[in-house]
C-alpha cells in the first residue's frame, strides 16, 4: 500500500452510527485551527480514499459528551478529553488479507490542549492496544507528534498495531488487526497512518481532504 497524495474499535464506530450522528474552524492561514464536526467527518478516510478496502462503518463525527468521552478517553476521569470538541470514527475491512482498520479522531479547542492530551492518552490507554509484548516502530515524520506499536491483537497471536499522531488541534489513531498472521505489516500500518495525518493537515489548511491509498 502506498499513499496517493502523499475488531478492536468496531464497537466505537457502531456506537457513533447509532447515535445518529457546532463549532467552526478557519483554515488557509497556516495556523492550527479548531475543526468543526463536519471537518472531523471529512478528515476520516472514506471509501474513495481506501481502494481495495470495504467500508464497515461510514465516517461519522459527533459532539463530545459524557458517553463519547468514556469511549474516546477510557481512563480515570476521562483524562485526555479535557477541552475536546468532537469525536469521529470510520472502519474498513480488507477481504484479501482478513485485515480491519479503524480510524479515530478527537478534535480539541486548541493545539495546546491537544498536545497536553497526547501523552496522557498514549501512555494511559492507546499505547497498550497492541498487546503487552508490542514493540515500538517508526512511522516517519508525519504530524507534529507520533507513536506506533506493533504486536498481537488476539489470543492466537494475530497481528495488531496502533498508531497515534497529533496534527495541530487533533489527535488521530489507526487501530489495525488481522485474523491471519501475515494480514498486516508495518509498511501497511505506516501508509494508513500517513493517509489519516495528511487528511488532517489538508483539513486544517482549509482544503478538502483528498489523501488516500494508492490501490
Poorly predicted regions:
1-30
Distance between the termini: 7 Å
- For the CA atoms, what is the radius of gyration? 16 Å
Number of helices: 5
User: How many β-strand runs?
Assistant: 9
Strand order of the largest sheet: 2-3-4-8-7-6-5
Rounded average pLDDT: 86
Structural class: alpha+beta
User: What letter string, H or E per element, gives the SSE order?
Assistant: EHHEHEEHEEEEHE
Q: Name the overall outline.
A: globular
Helix content: 25-40%
Major β-sheet annotation: 7 strands, antiparallel
Strand content: 25-35%
Could you please describe the fold and organization of this structure?
- This protein is of the alpha+beta class and 215 residues long.
- The chain is built from five helices and nine strands.
- The protein has helices at 10-19, 37-43, 66-72, 111-124, 186-204, and strands spanning 2-3, 54-63, 84-94, 99-108, 135-136, 145-152, 159-167, 170-178, 213-214.
- Strands 2-3-4-8-7-6-5 form a seven-stranded antiparallel beta sheet, sandwiched between helices.
- A hairpin with a 2-residue loop joins strand 7 (159-167) and strand 8.
Descriptors:
alpha+beta, 7-stranded antiparallel sheet, two-stranded antiparallel ribbon, disordered N terminus, 215 residues
Amino acid at each position: 500500500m502506498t499513499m496517493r497524495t502523499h475488531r478492536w474499535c468496531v464497537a466505537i464506530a457502531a456506537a457513533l452510527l447509532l447515535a445518529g450522528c457546532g463549532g467552526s474552524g478557519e483554515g488557509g492561514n497556516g495556523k492550527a485551527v479548531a475543526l468543526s464536526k463536519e471537518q472531523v467527518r471529512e478528515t476520516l478516510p472514506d471509501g474513495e480514499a481506501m481502494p481495495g478496502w470495504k467500508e464497515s462503518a461510514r465516517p461519522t463525527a459527533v459532539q463530545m459528551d459524557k458517553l463519547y468521552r468514556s469511549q474516546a478517553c477510557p481512563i480515570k476521569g476521562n483524562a485526555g478529553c479535557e477541552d475536546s470538541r468532537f469525536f469521529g470514527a470510520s472502519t474498513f475491512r480488507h477481504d484479501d488479507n482478513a485485515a480491519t482498520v479503524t480510524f479515530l479522531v478527537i478534535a480539541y479547542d486548541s493545539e495546546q490542549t491537544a498536545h497536553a492530551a497526547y501523552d496522557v492518552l498514549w501512555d494511559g490507554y492507546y499505547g497498550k492496544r497492541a498487546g503487552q509484548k508490542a514493540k515500538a516502530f517508526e512511522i516517519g515524520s508525519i504530524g507534529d507528534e507520533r507513536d506506533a506499536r506493533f504486536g498481537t491483537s488476539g489470543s492466537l497471536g494475530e497481528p495488531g498495531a496502533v498508531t497515534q499522531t497529533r496534527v495541530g488541534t487533533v489527535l488521530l489513531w489507526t487501530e489495525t488487526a488481522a485474523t491471519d498472521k501475515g494480514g498486516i505489516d508495518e509498511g501497511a500500518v505506516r501508509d494508513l497512518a500517513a493517509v489519516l495525518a495528511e487528511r488532517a493537515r489538508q483539513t486544517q489548511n482549509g482544503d478538502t481532504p483528498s489523501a488516500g491509498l494508492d490501490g
